[in-house]
Amino acid sequence: MRRGHANSLWRRLWFLLALLSLGWRDYPIRAIEGRGAQGATLTAPPVAPVRPVEDEYFGVKVTDPYRYMENMKDPAVEAWFKGQNAYTRALLARIPGRDELLAKIKKLDESAPERVFDVRCLPTGRYFYQKRLASEDLARIYMRDRLSGEEKLLVDPATFGQSGGPHFAIDYYAPSLDGRYVAFGVSPAGSEDAVLHVLDTQTGKETGDVIDRAEMGSPAWLPDNHTFLYNRLQKLGPDAAPAGRYLKSRAFLHALGTDPDKDRGIFGFEVSPTVSVKPEDISFAATIPESSYVLGLVAHGDQSEFTLYAAPLEALAKPAIPWKKVCDVDDDVTGFAVREDDLYLQSHKDASRYKVLHTKLSNPDVARAEVVVPPGEAVVRNISAASDALYVQELDGGLGRLVRLPYAGGKPEQVPLPFDGDVFVASTDPRVPGALVQLSSWVKARLLYAYDPESKRLTDTKLQPIGPYDDPKDLGSVEVKVKSYDGTLVPLSIVYKNGLALDGSHPTLLVGYGAFGITEDPRFDPKWLAWFDQGGVYAVAHVRGGGEYGEDWHLAGKGLTKQNTWKDFIACGEYLIAHRYTDSAHLGGLGGSAGGITIGRSMTERPDLFAAVIDAVPVSDMVRFEFTPNGPPNIPEFGTVKTEDGFKGLYAMSAYHHVVDGTRYPGVMVTTGFNDPRVISWEPGKMAARLQAATSSGKPILLRVDYEAGHGIGSTKTQRQQELADEWSFLLWQFGTPGFQPGK
Predict the structure, then answer these.
(1) How many domains are contained in the chain?
(2) Could you give the percent of the chain with pLDDT greater than 70?
(3) pTM (2 decimals)?
(4) Which of 168, 219, 509, 530 would you call most buried, defined as having the most Cβ atoms within 10 angstroms of its Cβ?
(5) Segments of the chain scoring below 70 in pLDDT
(6) Of 273, 302, 331, which closes a domain?
(7) Minimal CA–CA distance to 656: which of 704, 601, 697?
(8) Is 94 exposed, middle or buried (0-12, 13-18, 19+ CB in 10 A)?
(9) What is the extent of the structural domain holding 366?
């Protein structure tokens, strides 16, 4: 489930919206004998009691056998989770090839000396970035003056933890416009429950400003470099409903050295009579270098379309801020960029693949805005403003394109890229010409380039050193179109070692997501070589619900059309079998978060198609999802049980409610981070319990619980390595791969 300065600021806001710590003790597992996938005698996991609760929605009765699990503080529920995890850990430890696979994953993951990301560059040439050394578990924030300058460590999240306590991770950061200060958020154990701090880069010490409830803080500095805007969640009482967590948030103004509890709310719920904000909306305020305006953004949960307001920057000092509405939801605006008084808007109104509009902040008029990038075959993905031009990120036939649109006019220029794949504008600044651009492909790890508009060249910044396994020469990829059940052609990306024999024998992992209009972009991670070394195939199904073909593709897998998402995924699995990449005995499926709908419903509709499934931090009980902390923000994407069509769509996409007793389900590993604020652990827990009770195949249904993790954000390098080794060794076990079969 997702949560994300104009330009890079908007992306940070959207990532915060897009793309909690407990230990466990041994639990006395009830000894029930059963058969594993390869005939091994196994002790079963603890059995969850069935205590059905029946609800009725619009004349349809819905039975929930494990409703009681929603009380995660119930000692019996806690014990069941711990017993499930203890069983899973013991079983995975019996897979003989797991430790060797983990060692290989670790070697590949740590082959490059460091990994650098989240880079910003100021007009002074000062760079800020996050970096994780090969020997480290978590990234730290660094600074250097110019690319050749000496590197300075600013923030080490390890200093926030205590011996024996949970680890801390960096959630976000924002340097002041002059680079003197850095506001940043840190949170424990993957909880994303960030506390905002401020560091003085001259002294290397914190200023003492500490702000809690800043999970979606998104700090934006004012030109005085001493005050900033940020989002803060409401303070909840001990008896507050879980679904209230993200309600009624506001944007505040904070001056360094003052009490944050006395900060003035300047935008958001019940702040201004001229601004309409519902309790479930999330409010942000943003400043842009060189612009005399402040922007107020109302995110309607996880809906892509937002409402935007503007006000003179100087009005922040006045008792009443004259917010003026720039655009609303029906303008279909999903992105913006600002240069001084110029406002650029990315919109899909009457343009499924998007267009770019231009208007003025001093007199915004979206209805009469100039169309500077008309709709075409390519999908407009993002827009970013530098001092020289507007940079437009496009997706054309599955490949990334970067277009430069000079402010002075003239024909748009396509920036030449060194290879085909994904292009992402990592950072621009309205005070600085050019852009920092991240490039990657299915067979090349990401590198960071700088584009110089004068020389018209992309140059490797060398901030990210190339590791020995970052550009393997023995990997290849193909892009195909798969005919789905209704004749729609669905893109499928397939990656494998060169010379692969199409004999139907290869361990194959098919991955899909399909929600929020998010695209599955080409990317490569050296850790994946451990999979390819097993003769593995990696395939990505670009199913409906994503954004590969614009907003129409998104809407074709949303609400009452959501069935297209999992039917597309099934069609892609059938393609891989028909074209002899694999067979059903060697096909695995993986979906995570909202992709839990994709893999969950694919498995419940076609359990015979897969040998094994990884159901990662999945939304599984969609009928009850809106009553979780992250439920209300997701209503625009998935719907609500309060309307008949909403319930109909949610029930159809709810994998939990489509598990059928006596079905021969494949081997399944369901995963959860016990501190997950986005998909509460009872959702994966209920899904695992239901599958365990229903399956007749004798294949294992496992629940893997990480008590030091959340939704994956903030997990350590070691946690990710361990999880990958668990998942892949489980798949290879279920595929019957030699070297991964536990003894009897």
Answers:
(1) 3
(2) 94
(3) 0.94
(4) 219
(5) 1-42
(6) 331
(7) 601
(8) middle
(9) 335-466
